[in-house]
Amino acid sequence: MHGVKVDMTICVPGKILEDVVSSSLDHHIESQGLLSHNQWGFRINYSTEGLLLYLTETWKEALDTGWKVEVLLIDFRKAFDSVNHLILQQKLKAMSVSGDFLSWFTSYFCECRQFVQLSGVKSRPRLIKYGVPQGSILGPRLFSIYANDFPEAFTDGDLFMFVNDTTIFTIVATLSNIASALTCFVALWFPSTSAKLVAVLASVYTVFSTYIIILASMSPTPPMHGKNIGSFVVIAVSIISGILISYTKLTISTIMRDRGKQALFWCGICIQTGSCIGALLMFPLVNILKLFHQ
């Protein structure tokens, strides 16, 4: 039956015993450094507030510097009910839980049985092979041990868990980041103060940007859609366009700087005015005429 939770109500003496065992287990795990640092649930000096602050500050810093943050949020379905008892027992052994302590845990979640009672009729007891008690003190800790090696299976990005709630994110460079970095090397190797070069670069950039706009207007099925060569052309044109516009701005600024602060001031005004005109032209095309589609 889907969506039906088993009644795992624990009596008060049982909860007191769980609290004692939980304290011993926490001390053993923390003193030996056995739990992954990516697990923030039910641990000393770890909290939801701390995790939220860390994530938001990390993402904000990346976005402020022009990077792109990709986030995947995972909430495992019936996570506590999916814990395999045999695997959990092996993972407890791997954390050096042994002897009477391990025997107590084995008796805690193994050899348990459940039945269903409907209209006064009881079903036959069935052995429970999966799951840890929900609403208990030990339940979240046992699940954390069960999923402790999950972060090790993820290598591309960062993964953080709060018991069964998982956040995966990666910080990647956008095309503008790549273009800006390449522009620095181009400007270092090929410095220029030629007005003619500015005119040529501006013309080439105009052609490239027109090509990008035409492709965008033909989305979601532009020419060579779904082909590797098509993706390569779009990415290459985008990066080259970014390099051209960045290098053109840098060259113009260099020319104006040589002519004095007044010229540099008007250069800044012209650049910002051009950006404003571009935004004003694109607004009706995107929001009114709906020329571009995803």
From TrEMBL:
GO molecular function, one term: riboflavin transmembrane transporter activity
Secretion signal, residue range per the UniProt entry: none
InterPro entries, A to Z: DNA/RNA_pol_sf, Riboflavin_transptr, RT_dom
PROSITE patterns in the cross-refs: RT_POL
Keywords: Cell membrane, Membrane, Transmembrane, Transmembrane helix, Transport
Transmembrane segments: 168-190, 197-217, 229-252, 264-286
GO cellular component: plasma membrane
Cellular compartment(s): Cell membrane
Domain Reverse transcriptase residue range list: 1-271
Catalytic activity: riboflavin(in) = riboflavin(out)
Membrane topology: Multi-pass membrane protein
Family affiliation: Belongs to the riboflavin transporter family.
Functional summary from the UniProt entry: Plasma membrane transporter mediating the uptake by cells of the water soluble vitamin B2/riboflavin that plays a key role in biochemical oxidation-reduction reactions of the carbohydrate, lipid, and amino acid metabolism.
PANTHER family: RIBOFLAVIN TRANSPORTER (PTHR12929:SF10), SOLUTE CARRIER FAMILY 52 (PTHR12929)
Name of the protein this chain belongs to: Riboflavin transporter
Encoding gene (name): Slc52a3
